[in-house]
Design a protein that fits this description.
alpha/beta
């Protein structure tokens, strides 16, 4: 969690000692990947809104390393560094393509090695991609319970994208861009308060329920 100092007067002021660090995790087993494009766009949007830095970890190159052993102590330095980067993040953006009605095994394998209490209270942005909108409930029915186990602060609006939102593995949909922007706007007051950045008095407009 962020370092903060609190005044004892009538008004409390939180002072961060380092920029907000947003880390994205793409659970796609392939490269290039629509999921990575979505995770990257969301990570950049949240980092920009919070005045912080954004980094994306692609799990595809780590597949063999994650399979090196059943225990974290048996994993190589690249996998260990990726795990530690997620655990040290202020905000985590996670994403997976829908595969057999859930997130990929690669995605689960990675988070199986995250410390059980390393994500307690950590803001998590949920994203997913699928071949059609029929997979959209992956965000709510599969991903949100996983991070409920970690006792994370899953942000209210997840972001789902279908194949029609991309061309050549790049986002081409104005609707998807708008969904990302709305997710950021809705989460920003909560994040600023949670991360010790003071209060945000801007009240974001609400999107139509079917927009997500």
């Amino acid at each position: 969690m962020a370092d903060a100092e609190t005044n004892t007067g009538d008004e409390a002021t939180d002072v961060r000692t380092h920029p907000v660090k947003v880390v994205g995790v793409s659970g796609s087993p392939t490269h290039p990947s629509r999921t990575t494009a979505l995770v990257s766009a969301a990570t950049d949007a949240f980092a920009e809104a919070l005045g912080g830095t954004g980094t994306v970890i692609e799990l595809a190159p780590l597949l063999s390393g994650l399979g090196a052993g059943a225990f974290r102590s048996q994993l190589g330095p690249e996998v260990t560094a990726a795990l530690e980067e997620v655990e040290a993040a202020d905000v985590v953006v996670v994403g997976s393509p829908a595969y057999r009605a859930t997130y990929t095994g690669l995605f689960k394998l990675f988070f199986d090695q995250i410390g059980q209490y390393a994500l307690v209270g950590k803001p998590i942005v949920l994203t997913a991609t699928g071949g059609s909108d029929r997979h959209a409930l992956l965000v709510e029915h599969q991903m949100r319970p996983l991070f409920g186990f970690f006792q994370s602060l899953t942000l209210p609006l997840g972001i789902f994208a279908g194949e029609h939102d991309f061309a050549d593995y790049k986002i081409v949909s104005d609707d998807l861009t708008a969904r990302i922007d709305t997710s950021v706007a809705r989460a920003l007051p909560l994040l600023r308060s949670h991360l010790g950045m003071g209060t945000d008095t801007v009240q974001p407009s609400f999107a139509r329920p079917f927009a997500f």
